[in-house]
Amino acid sequence: MTKLSLSRAWDETKNVLARDGKLIAAVGLALVVFPQTLAGLFAPQEGQDAARGSMWVLTLSIIVAIVAQAALNRLAIGPSTTVGEAIRRAFRRTPALLAAFAAQGEVIALIDPARFRALAEMSRSLNVWNVPTMYLWENFYNDRTPEELGALPEMQYAHPRQVQGWMNQKRGRSRADSAQRMTPERRARYLELRRMMLKTLADAGAPLLMGTDSPQMFNVPGFALHRELQVAHAAGLTNYQVLESGTRNVGRYVSESLKEDGAFGTVAAGQWADLVLLEANPLEDLAHLRRRAGVIVRGRWVSASEIQTGLHALAAKYAALR
């Protein structure tokens, strides 16, 4: 098994950039920077109505994001595909994708949970790794107000402009839900279906990985992970399954799928010594993960008090900008 090598990774990156660098940058901007920036700028503020021009800009940003996502999906399943070819294929699929996006509420009503087991077993048999990002989608479709989400304790550790952008995005989401026929009942059903699918994947033994897609939509790095754990547990996963998805399974994924050094994720001789030391057993209660005595990172001990000092400094920095 090969070892992780920064020099080899850099050499491979340079080759990819030399071939498709400009197009990769375009896809990245289209998928992340462009749509989210426009959503933050043009989503109506509290008490404002959406202007016709603003809605057109938001619509355009959504179309561009769909094309970019389809292109990235193609790159993921076809490693030999160039970025240019992936984008061209994405544009050909855009009408069908937009139709499904526009009628999202109707599509939700067509989902049959009876098929979940077969899909989960297919995922297991093909060794397809799943990163559910449950908390992110909860924030998109739950009934919590922008003000309520913006007042969560961890928002003090995010830049005020970013938090305001998330609040604007949440307000814009309600208008998009109306256009896509996503009634409150259908939103609740969508979240319920996601939890059912996650539980089915876990029960079938399909490989799961922990992830949050931070930072976006009220997902503050680190804090969002704890909320992700709670949503996964509420979906029916055991504490062990939840913890395994962020520890042992990550090492397995790196070793089995990436063919790299996956000597981490478990506490054993020869494994990397990056550890979180807790004052209580998380197998009894996932909330115990917050009871840190400290962490060991690259051989350096960082106490809970040192972590808290850093958080206080970050909160003070952002408080001064409000």
Structure overview:
The protein is mainly α. The protein has three domains: 1-102, no CATH class; 108-257, no CATH class; 270-322, no CATH class. Helix content is 61%, strand content 4%. The chain has helices at 6-42, 52-77, 83-102, 104-110, 116-125, 134-141, 146-150, 160-179, 184-204, 223-234, 239-245, 248-256, 304-319; strands at 275-278, 292-297, 300-303. Strands 1-2-3 form a three-stranded antiparallel sheet. The termini are far apart.
Helical content (DSSP H or I, runs of 4+): 55-70%
Strand content: under 5%
Order of helices and strands: HHHHHHHHHHHHEEEH
Approximate shape: globular
Please provide the count of β strands: 3
Structural class: mainly alpha
The end-to-end span amounts to 50 Å
Question: What multimeric state do the chains show?
Answer: single chain
Number of helices: 13
Low-confidence stretches: 46-53
Q: Rg from C-alpha positions?
A: 21 Å
- Largest sheet strand order: 1-2-3
When the domains are counted, the total is 3
Report the sheet with the most strands, covering strand number, pairing sense and barrel closure: 3 strands, antiparallel
pLDDT averaged over residues: 80
Provide a concise account of the structure shown.
Helices cover 61% and strands 4% of the residues. The protein is mainly α. It has three domains: 1-102, no CATH class; 108-257, no CATH class; 270-322, no CATH class.
